[in-house]
Specification:
Layout: E1 12-13, H1 20-26, E2 29-33, E3 55-59, E4 63-64, E5 71-72, E6 76-77, E7 83-84, H2 86-104, E8 113-118, H3 120-131, E9 138-142, H4 154-160, E10 163-168, H5 177-190, E11 192-197, H6 207-221
Parallel strand pairs: 2-3, 2-8, 8-9, 9-10, 10-11
Antiparallel strand pairs: 1-3, 4-5, 6-7
Helix pairs in contact: 2-3
Length: about 220
């Protein structure tokens, strides 16, 4: 399995179609990565709480879920606080990188790019940093985890130490303590991480967390 391609036609943009090329040439881009069972419109609901000058592109995961609505980046492994088959995560990561390359080709120049993912999407955001840390200004990982195994870019990531906002509920019923501990260890060794705990939100995103993410993106991308 080499690459799970992203459907370019299924991308949700925060700007009208006719303005996308100009927008990505002149404004920072935030790529939104939804969680299991959602689609490209899921995290679009978060955009009103985020900095308006930024451009947001929410992309659909490549795997339909049998018998359920929505899509997945990889089949979940419900063990040790949740995990994933690294081969699927890497294949989806290559799909997102191909999508980003095609997106950047639409404009002669482009501005900084950041990642924002929830749950599976947060695991994807971390994996994208592992594959290509030099491509991204930083990432927001909400209620996420890290895929197992080694990635060729891990050493480069540990040198670059990209900024990461990590938000979660310590009592998350989906991404539980073993997975949280693994992500803490990984980010501590590979990123400039800001860890934020939001008790009582479960496996979700609160208004306070969204506000903090908005401030973080403003500081990160200078808008």
């Amino acid at each position: 399995m080499t690459e799970l391609p992203v459907d370019e036609q299924a991308t949700w943009w925060s700007v009208p179609a006719a303005e996308i090329d100009h927008a990505i040439a002149t404004r920072p881009l935030v790529v939104l990565l939804h969680g299991l069972g959602a689609d490209e419109r899921d995290l679009a609901g978060l955009v009103p709480a985020l900095p308006a000058p930024l451009v947001y592109a929410s992309i659909r995961a490549p795997l339909p879920i049998s018998g359920m609505p929505g899509y997945a980046w990889f089949p979940p492994l419900l063990a040790e606080g949740i995990s994933a088959d690294a081969a699927y995560v890497d294949a989806s990561t290559r799909g997102v990188l191909s999508w980003l390359e095609k997106t950047h080709a639409r404009a002669r120049t482009h501005q900084a790019v950041a990642l924002l993912g929830f749950s599976q999407g947060a695991a994807m955001a971390v994996q994208l940093l592992r594959h290509a840390p030099e491509l991204f200004a930083g990432a927001v990982a909400l209620s996420g985890f890290v895929a197992p195994g080694l990635v060729a870019g891990d050493e480069a990531m540990s040198q670059i130490r990209p900024p990461v906002f990590w938000g979660y509920d310590p009592a998350d019923p989906v991404v539980t303590t073993p997975a949280t501990d693994r992500l803490r260890d990984f980010l501590g060794a590979h990123a400039d991480v800001q860890e934020h705990r939001y008790a009582g939100i479960g496996h979700g995103i609160s208004g306070a967390e969204a506000t903090a993410v908005g401030r973080y993106l403003t500081d990160l991308l200078g808008e």
